Every structure is written in structure tokens, then in C-alpha cells.
């Protein structure tokens, strides 16, 4: 039986992580697992209480916020699994989730990363993810298949390659990580799983979805649905993703598109919505990419 390391990262929402851990305890029946929880520099240290409530888990406390990739990589550094199941702390398990994904990975060694069906927790019949379309490297846009559709089983037979895994729930093989390396930490937040999927694919593995496995997702608990932080990282990392992954000609086309179309359009939108501070975040995002290399260290977000 393959060993599965379940890795999740907490940041200032320990009660949400409690709900995830309870769901693993209540719903999971796969026995060969280890649970690794990284607290990513939360204001209050939840680890002592967690150790009492969840003695079956491994807890790591980072003194600073390492970002999504950095926190997950810290968990990865102590993981012993053949398969690493990276899940957001705002997800909840369903029965058979791990078994279904493990069986697929066991059957198809060509897979490097696989994601399950994602449903919105607060609207449990609504799909969030049934796979991704391929990336358009000129616009840095792709589409999430099935999102906001009522789940009537219309995608349940979908078991196979997809454009990208979903960062909220992705099981990655140790073999793929050994070849492609861990997630790039300079993304800090957003796009790192897309970059990782491209790197895993470029190292000879496939990216799959299995809609027979399901997980529930409480969207945007940590960041919020719209914030200066989110605007900064979504713009900064959209550019960084293209710099790291797009062919040269398509990258040049993207830069022209972003500067002449996306930037003025976003500024107009910010002005209309009276989010004037977001203009600064957009310009900072562009400036970071002009002054930093694709592997530059990132020290975190400063307002």
C-alpha cells in the first residue's frame, strides 16, 4: 500500500484547519497516511492545542509567513509518502477520496499530479473544478471546466489528462517531485500550482483529473474575495508565470497585450469601483517583474 502524506498550511484560521482535520478523521478510511500541518506564521500559535486535539498529526510552526508554496514545501521537507496530497486548509474530505486518487496513480505511472472534483462547500451541488483548459500563453488565461455549474454527474466519467491541477487539492507523486523539484517559492501566493504543473509536464509526466473523487472547498477564506494583496499577486504572478513558462514569441505578445490592454482596462475598472489603491498594486506588480529575475527571492507582501 502506497504511503500518502497529506500536507496543509494554516495562516490565522486555525478553526478552519480544525474542520479539515476533523473531516480527515471522520471521512478517510485509507490507513497508510501521515498528516502534516504547517502553521505559516500565524499571529497566535495554534500548535500546542492541535497537538492535544490531533495527536495523529505532525505539526510544524514557521515563525514567518512563507507563502503558499513555501509553507507547502516546508511540509514536503518532512514528508515520507510515495504520494503527497497537498490540500488547502479550507477543504473538507469525502469518503473514498484518497483511495480513488491513489488507485488512479497506481494504475497510470505516467501521471505526475492529479486533482479530484471540487465542489463549493457552501453550495455543495455547485461545481468549482472539473479540470482546466490549456493555457493561452499570449493572454495568460485559461478556463476552469464546469465552474458554477450544478453538479448532475455530467463530468463524472472524466478521468484523464487536463490542462492543470487545482491548487486546493492536488496529489503529486514523489517521482515527479524528484524530477521537477518543489513549487517555486517566489510566487508566494497564486499561480505557483500552474507553474508547477507546467514544470511537471515538461519533465515527462501527465497532469490528470479524476472526477470520481470529490473534495469540498471553502473558497478564499484566508485572502478574501477582493483585496489589495490579491490584486498585487494575481497581476505580479500572471506576468511571472509567462516569463517562466511561455515560448519567447508568445511571451513578447503577452507583454504587449498586458501593457496596452490589461493595464489600462484594470486602471479604469479600479477607478470605477473606487479601488484607487489597487492602481498602486498593479504598478508594483509590473515593477517587480521589471526589476527581478524569474528565480528572485521574494520577501513577502508589504502594503
Description:
The chain is of the alpha/beta class and 303 residues long. The protein has two domains: 4-217, Spore Coat Polysaccharide Biosynthesis Protein SpsA, Chain A (Alpha-Beta Complex); 228-291. It is built from nine helices and ten strands. The protein has helices at 14-27, 47-53, 67-76, 97-107, 174-180, 192-202, 228-245, 248-272, 277-291; strands at 4-10, 33-40, 57-62, 83-87, 91-93, 111-120, 123-129, 159-161, 169-173, 206-217. Strands 1, 2, 3, 4, 5, 6, 7, 8, 9 and 10 form a ten-stranded mixed β-sheet that branches. The longest helix has 25 residues, at 248-272. The protein starts with a strand and ends in a 12-residue tail after the last helix. 44% of the residues are buried.
Shape: globular
Tell me the strand percentage band. Answer: 15-25%
Query: How is the main sheet built?
Result: 10 strands, mixed
Order of helices and strands: EHEHEHEEHEEEEHHEHHH
Number of helices: 9
**Helical content, roughly?**
25-40%
CATH architecture of the largest domain: Alpha-Beta Complex
Mean pLDDT: 94
Instruction: Tally the beta strands.
Output: 10
Total of domains: 2
CATH superfamily of the largest domain, please?
A: Spore Coat Polysaccharide Biosynthesis Protein SpsA, Chain A
CATH class category of the largest domain: Alpha Beta
Radius of gyration: 19 Å
Instruction: Name the structural class.
Output: alpha/beta
CATH topology of the largest domain: Spore Coat Polysaccharide Biosynthesis Protein SpsA, Chain A
Distance between the termini: 47 Å
Uncertain stretches of 5 or more adjacent residues: none
Amino acid at each position: 500500500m502506497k504511503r500518502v502524506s497529506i500536507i496543509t498550511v494554516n495562516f490565522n484560521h486555525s478553526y478552519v484547519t480544525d474542520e479539515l482535520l476533523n473531516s480527515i478523521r471522520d471521512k478517510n478510511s485509507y490507513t497508510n497516511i501521515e498528516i502534516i500541518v504547517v502553521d505559516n506564521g500565524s499571529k497566535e500559535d495554534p500548535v500546542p492545542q492541535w497537538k492535544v486535539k490531533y495527536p495523529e498529526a505532525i505539526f510544524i510552526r514557521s515563525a514567518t509567513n512563507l507563502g503558499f508554496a513555501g509553507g507547502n514545501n516546508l511540509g514536503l521537507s518532512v514528508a515520507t509518502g510515495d504520494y503527497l496530497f497537498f490540500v488547502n486548509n479550507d477543504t473538507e474530505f469525502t469518503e473514498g477520496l484518497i483511495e480513488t486518487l491513489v488507485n488512479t496513480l497506481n494504475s497510470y505511472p505516467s501521471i505526475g499530479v492529479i486533482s479530484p472534483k471540487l465542489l463549493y462547500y457552501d453550495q455543495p451541488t455547485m461545481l468549482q473544478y472539473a479540470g482546466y483548459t490549456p493555457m493561452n500563453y499570449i493572454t495568460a488565461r485559461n478556463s476552469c471546466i464546469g465552474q458554477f455549474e450544478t453538479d448532475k454527474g455530467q463530468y463524472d466519467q472524466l478521468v484523464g489528462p487536463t490542462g492543470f491541477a487545482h491548487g486546493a487539492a492536488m496529489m503529486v507523486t514523489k517521482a515527479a517531485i524528484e524530477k521537477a523539484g518543489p513549487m517555486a517559492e517566489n510566487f508566494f501566493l497564486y499561480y505557483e500550482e500552474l507553474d508547477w504543473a507546467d514544470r511537471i509536464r515538461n519533465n515527462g509526466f501527465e497532469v490528470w483529473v479524476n472526477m470520481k473523487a470529490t473534495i469540498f472547498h471553502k473558497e478564499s477564506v484566508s485572502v478574501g474575495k477582493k483585496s489589495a494583496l490579491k490584486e498585487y499577486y494575481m497581476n505580479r504572478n500572471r506576468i511571472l508565470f509567462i516569463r517562466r513558462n511561455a515560448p519567447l514569441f508568445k511571451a513578447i505578445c503577452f507583454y504587449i497585450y498586458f501593457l496596452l490592454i490589461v493595464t489600462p482596462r484594470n486602471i479604469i475598472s479600479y477607478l470605477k469601483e473606487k479601488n484607487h489603491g489597487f492602481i498602486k498594486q498593479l504598478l508594483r506588480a509590473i515593477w517587480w517583474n521589471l526589476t527581478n529575475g524569474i528565480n528572485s527571492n521574494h520577501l513577502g507582501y508589504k502594503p
